[in-house]
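Reader question, answered in our methods column.
A reader sent in the components of a multi-part assembly and asked whether the whole thing could be modeled at once rather than chain by chain. We filled in our standard form and ran it. Here is what they sent:
COMPLEX SIZE: two components
ENTRIES:
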Amino acid sequence: MSQLAEPTPIEAPPAEEPAVIIGEYDTVDGVMDAARRFRDAGYTKWDVHAPFPIHGIDRAMGIRPTALPWITLVCGLVGMTAGLVLTIYTMATEFATPWLPFSQALWGYPFIISGKPYNSLPAWIPVVFELTIMFAAYSTVFGMFILNKLPMLYNPLFKSDNFRRATSDRFFIAVDVRDPQFGQAEPLLRETGALSVETLTH
Amino acid sequence: MAQDHHPHTLHEADQTPLGDKAGPAYRLLFTVGAAAVLLAVLAVPFSDGGVRRFGFAYVLAFAFVLSLGLGSLFFVVVTHLFRAGWAVVIRRPAETFAANLSLLAVMFVPILLLVWANNGLVYPWAQPNDQLKAKYYEANYGGHSDAADPGAVHILPVAAEGDDAHHSGGEHGDAHAASSGVHVPPYDLVEKKKAYLNIGFFTVRWILYFVIWSILGYVYWRTSISQDVSGDHTLTNRLQGLAPAGILLFALTLTFASLDLLMSLDPAWFSTMWGVYFFSGSVVSTVAALILILMILQHYGLMQAVNVEHYHDLGKLLFAFVFFWGYIAFSQYMLIWYAAIPEETGWFELHGVTTAPAEMTGWTVVAIVLLVGHLLIPFAGLLSRHVKRRKWSLGFWAVWMIVMHVIDLWWIVMPSFNYQQVTFGVVEAGLLIGLTSIFLGAAVYRAASYPLVPQKDPRLQESLAFENL
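And here is the structure of the entire assembly that came back:
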């Protein structure tokens, strides 16, 4: 009889390591002032959570301008180029690609429409325009998703019962464990008047 | 620094009317305006085209001032329609312009006289049809209107297409008629539009337009002024309730007014996008003018409530309408180009839009300037938010767009005066500067007695605390 191999013991879960520390505030002023303190102290991995958009919070947190407009611009230009290439190639050239695998050849197909020249730029403009818009719009939406790390199915913040009030009437500052100054975050949260301070685990 | 939800107070300069301090401004504007108009009138005998030229130049200048007035009316009504909070502090200059639309009724009198003269000097439809027919034969066949009917009505002057073909029987010098650059529209197409394009109905329509514009402009301005004193919030509700009907009336009157004023310069031609085309240009120039007016007022320490956020939003509006103008202008062109119906393409040919080098005129250059300067360059220039948030760059584009709007109207109007060569001189410049200065002067005069910022609008706080996130 062959002996059954000793089952490998399931590895014990890692010790409860902190993931994030949150401080709770009950006023806009309180969280704004606290945010300025955290900004001035040089924190980098932290965020403010509020039930509604707070005017001026970007400045109070020292958030740098987003790179999203550049993504939109570049993708819009790519879309424009794609539109021009598509229309001019298919409508005004006879360039063919019989060498593509699986017989997937592309053929330019010059065709006189309405007595216009083969390459009628005004007629291509709607196509070019729509492709520009499509590339720019989709890149903006999905670029925003990527920059915001969405979709995010789990966040340690959800473990906190207090944090639920971030969608109704409380304001939170959350400092991530990866922040070099994570260790000093708790005193600073208390110093800035946090109603409660809570360390959450992964 | 917790300013965001504490009440803002208006700067003292924003609470008090200008009063006598505005005196030098409107006196200067009235003087410049009167001098410029006088100069234009004096220049008429020394300019090619004489009274006819003056008529076209006046239509051009009037169209520009009208676009400022109507754009302002649109701005006021549409911010009420959308219940826009951000625009409250910058609303008063637009309200003042809109209230001045009744002044334009006075400015319209010369155009009415031109039409009433019934000689087709500026508007070819405003003359007896026999006269138009005679002119048409004179221009195209050398005056044989009674002898032999050539059987074909030409949208474009025949002599312009080839010189030799019509020299043979030309005892009246038919080539001369064509080379004068005066386009005579086909009389039979104009005849078919007489039910609409006649002097009596034209007059009735313009009276109706001015009644509607004057009442709308005055009601919005007057109500806002009285709210400064009473602080009655229901006044805002009343203006918002009026806005949907107001915007419909505005759209209809602007459309038909632009058809009457500009499209009927070439009465055989028609474009169903014309109203929107004029509208988009009007809003571009109005927003640009508002930006510049706010900057000038702030330069003198007024309108302290206006900050970079309001400029940013005006910049966005300017950007949007720059592109909207391009969208409409291109759509109008492309549909006509694609269908290639002579009745429709004739207008673009007269305005120099062609790729055939032999048919190009000075207006071709102007058309290209519009494509590049009214759409492509400002589109790229206004794209960035930083451009819209810096005063010098936003001011630069505002000036640029006003110049482009003037060029746009000039390109619309003046080819009907002479489609073969570009015409710009003291008459056009004088009337443009003159009417605009008088219009601005009247606005300053009207604004002087009241605060420059609505004092007790229910959305004033929202506007003062406004931020673009």
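What stands out: Residues 351 and 415 of chain B are 6 Å apart (CA to CA). The mean pLDDT of chain B is 89.
Send us your own complexes using the same form.
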